[in-house]
Design a protein that fits this description.
60s Ribosomal Protein L30, Chain: A; 21 strands; about 425 residues; 3 domains; seven-stranded antiparallel β-sheet; Jelly Rolls; ten-stranded mixed β-sheet; alpha+beta; about 30% strand; 6 helices
């Protein structure tokens, strides 16, 4: 029966080839491919169409995501979280469940790509590959996702990135249910003369390969000139098929850590990289071993800020490490490390008072953004009082919506910069 269905789908697609106006939506639960002939070919047309359709509900709303996930009834459209993470709806865990979670996100966004500017069915503009891939929407998660749909190939970010000594990479991955054991490999490497694609299994001068598997995590650091390697392995909190998994990789001096769910899943030394400067990355699927995955919300930041110095000396801390779900004001438990750092500064300086101000990008209606930013500022204040014992008289909260951007709202990366929480000394 499955063979007949596949034959029928292939026959239909050959008889009626997808035009530039076609859109493909993947239903992971039923394993059905739906072709929507009315979808627009490019993001600008998508935005215009969606804004016209929703004008009576929410003037100026952001690009509509073609997904079956239920929207929040409070607004006609969702405003993205400050990190860009758009997972499926899951039970909210408490901050305290992350009390041993020592990760603190960085304070400078180097790269962000959620594929929002790419047309569904196309290959993303900022990437290249020696294998097949395309942008899809999914029935279990919002946003757009890069479908790594080859069983053997590399998917390269076109842009070379001058990684700082301490940096953080975050991304969402949905492994496919069928196929091999490996969801994807991520390779970070350095090249003297960066090129568009290096299909060597160990590209560049040196690098590290993170194998994201359904049963475990495996890593291998390498230096091609010295044939030296360092490996690590862990079975803590492996990724789950057909679920949104948020993976965090933190490189700090000679230390390399991976986080997933509520735990640090791997911690290893990185002395093999002495003298190497990372400047490239790619996702890799290994022949015969990979099941393939969907990737989105790729975010690279510098290492964590010096909260004490910024609050006490500069008088303002801009934080990208306080997480919210899409269009929500509930602080996510991954924010624990950032909030603890802020609370530590307040406890060590009992005379210090701060105002907590939420900010959004320009997607969505002005009034909705302003309200959301105020609710988020208030939520951060409430968490500092409830979970960290900070006296309420030392905290104020507010929200500016989209009125104080720190970057133009013209690219996913710049919008990510504008979605932030600021703490201002008063």
């Amino acid at each position: 029966m499955k063979t007949l269905i596949k034959f029928f789908i292939i026959t239909v697609m050959i008889s009626f080839p997808l035009s530039l106006n076609s859109q493909v939506k993947i239903d992971l639960k039923k394993q059905v491919i739906t072709i929507d002939k009315n979808a627009k070919a490019n993001v600008k047309k998508d935005v215009a169409k969606d804004q016209n359709q929703n004008n009576n509900q929410n003037k100026g709303t952001q690009e509509k995501q073609n997904t079956s996930v239920k929207k929040d009834p409070k607004t006609a459209e969702d405003n993205k979280s400050n990190t860009g993470t758009q997972g499926d709806v899951q039970e909210q865990q408490s901050l305290q469940s992350y009390s041993t979670y020592d990760f603190v996100p960085g304070d400078k966004v180097i790269l962000f790509d959620d594929f929002s500017q790419d047309a569904v069915g196309d290959f993303p503009a900022l990437w290249t590959a020696n294998a097949a891939g395309e942008i899809n929407t999914l029935n279990i998660a919002q946003g757009k996702w890069l479908n790594l749909n080859s069983t053997d190939g590399n998917y390269f970010l076109l842009k070379s990135i001058e990684f700082p000594k301490n940096f953080i990479i975050e991304f969402d991955i949905i492994p496919k249910k069928t196929g091999g054991r490996i969801a994807a490999g991520l390779i970070l490497y350095g090249e003297d003369k960066p090129k568009e694609m290096d299909n060597n299994p160990h590209p560049g001068n040196s690098g590290i390969i993170i194998s994201i598997e359904k049963e475990r995590w495996n890593t291998m650091g390498y230096k091609t000139s010295e044939n030296s390697q360092i490996t690590g392995s862990s079975s803590v909190n492996p990724v789950e098929a057909e679920k949104v998994n948020h993976v965090i990789i933190w490189a700090q001096n000679r230390r390399f850590r991976i986080y997933h769910k509520q735990a640090k899943v791997l911690d290893m030394p990185t002395n093999v990289f002495d003298g190497t400067k990372f400047n490239r990355l790619c996702f890799r699927l290994s022949r015969g071993a990979s099941c393939g995955s969907y990737i989105s919300n790729i975010r690279i930041t510098s290492a964590a800020p010096d909260m004490r110095s910024k609050l006490l000396t500069e008088g303002k801390l801009i934080s990208y490490g306080i997480y919210f779900d899409v269009n929500k004001d509930v602080v996510k438990p991954e924010s624990y490390g950032t909030l603890k750092g802020i609370a530590d500064v307040l406890n060590e300086n009992p005379d210090l008072k701060v105002k907590i101000v939420g900010h959004t990008d320009s997607d969505g209606a002005d009034a909705a953004n302003l309200d959301l930013s105020k609710r988020r500022g208030s939520a951060v204040k409430a968490e500092l009082i409830k979970d960290f014992g900070i006296d309420a008289s030392r905290l104020e909260s507010d929200g500016m919506g989209e009125t104080q951007p720190v970057a133009p709202n013209d690219t996913p990366a710049n919008k990510a910069l504008n979605r932030r929480v600021e703490l201002i000394k008063i």
